[in-house]
Automatic annotation (TrEMBL), chains A, B:
Lineage: Archaea, Methanobacteriati, Methanobacteriota, Stenosarchaea group, Halobacteria
SMART domains assigned to the protein according to its UniProt record, in alphabetical order: HTH_ASNC (SM00344), TRASH (SM00746)
Annotated source species: Haloarcula argentinensis
Domain HTH asnC-type as annotated: residue spans: 4-67
GO MF, one example: sequence-specific DNA binding
Name of this protein: Transcription regulator
Length: 196, 196
DNA sequence: ATTGAAAGAATATATAT
DNA sequence: ATATATATTCTTTCAAT
């Protein structure tokens, strides 16, 4: 199990601040060569820590309206469907599905008309109740702190330490707390796949 | 007031998918030259539509624990402070402050112990009540849809159309629905600044 | 917005620590 | 295993149109 050293943290932090920063610039700041940065970034992507490079779009400029947080209390078993269908809406920026059958959306809706957004994208028969609140302010963390690389075991959910293992299945990387969890997971994964 | 054409939309969409994609690659896809892409991206940044280039970090791999949504019901007037102080916590990924004195956090906390996170970063005397819910699934929109560039007037809040105006104050760009709103805003801005 | 030239950055390979 | 130096390739930027 590869951990993260201080340099990895610095690289991550620098990329969080500006993902188009040249590797040579990063290299200089962390006292390494550009190829070394390239290798490390590749590794961070491989590890699944960097999920992608993206652009921070101010959606409030794109969609006339006010930013709101909508909390949807779904009927039993309907939350996943609601989360999936609502995320197709152009005005929806982020979707969280939580335990207890609730779905929280951050969206920008015209003159605080959230009901229309829901009516268009979800079956209101699936909804018990919903609540809309205007967002006054939102921000996202650009800091990482001294966080450790600490994935959860894909099989049992325990945290993975130095003795952990990893497997790559269909391009996705999975982490495990021990060899037996890894094997159990892989077996299950493959039998599921054979079934298809 | 400059609008967005289809090409701008495509560029934005391509950058959302991969912000490190070379401009030459984008150029090919939208049938333009690389320098043209560079100019347009610069304009999108100037407009404030692109707020920055960043990296999508899987924080659940960095912080041992489970992802949760924490809803904090703040005492009157304390929400802004809570939002500010809590966003310093390493485990907090996103903070929304909504009308009605509530703060919603997306965070990753060790063995669903959210109270510790709050206790460490906010004065619990400021809090009426809070609720923690495990996040089962979360995703963010990578699509833009056919959204129009539709900023709200910085002065009156109405939507800004073709006849709108824009001013740049201390490097920040502001949009207005009409000239008088722009003037009022600038006057107020400057008198506030003089006061300091 | 394009072209073409020049500067600059990323990667592959071989090599050294 | 991990970093480096160099060479090659690919990108971006700048000027002129």
């Amino acid at each position: 199990m590869p951990g993260l050293d201080d340099t990895d943290h610095e690289i991550l932090q620098l990329l969080l601040e500006d993902a188009r920063r040249p590797y040579s610039d990063i290299a200089e700041r962390v006292d390494l060569s550009a190829p070394a940065i390239s290798d490390r970034v590749d590794r961070l992507v491989e590890m699944g820590l960097i999920q992608g490079f993206t652009v921070d779009v101010d959606r409030s400029l794109l969609q006339a309206g006010v930013p709101v947080l909508i909390e949807v209390d779904a009927k039993p078993g309907r939350a996943a469907d609601i989360a999936a269908s609502v995320s197709d809406a152009d005005s929806v920026e982020r979707v969280y599905r939580t335990a207890g059958g609730r779905v929280m959306l951050a969206a920008t809706v015209p003159q605080s008309d959230a009901s229309e957004l829901l009516a268009e994208h979800v079956d209101l028969g699936d909804v018990n109740r919903y609540e809309v609140r205007m967002i006054a302010d939102s921000e996202w963390a650009v800091g990482l702190g001294g966080a450790e690389f600490a994935p959860d075991c894909a099989e049992c959910g325990n945290s993975v330490d130095e003795e952990g293992e990893q497997r790559t299945l269909d391009g996705e990387r999975y982490y495990f707390c021990c060899g037996s969890c890894a094997e159990r997971f892989v077996d299950q994964y493959e039998s599921l796949k054979d079934g298809v």
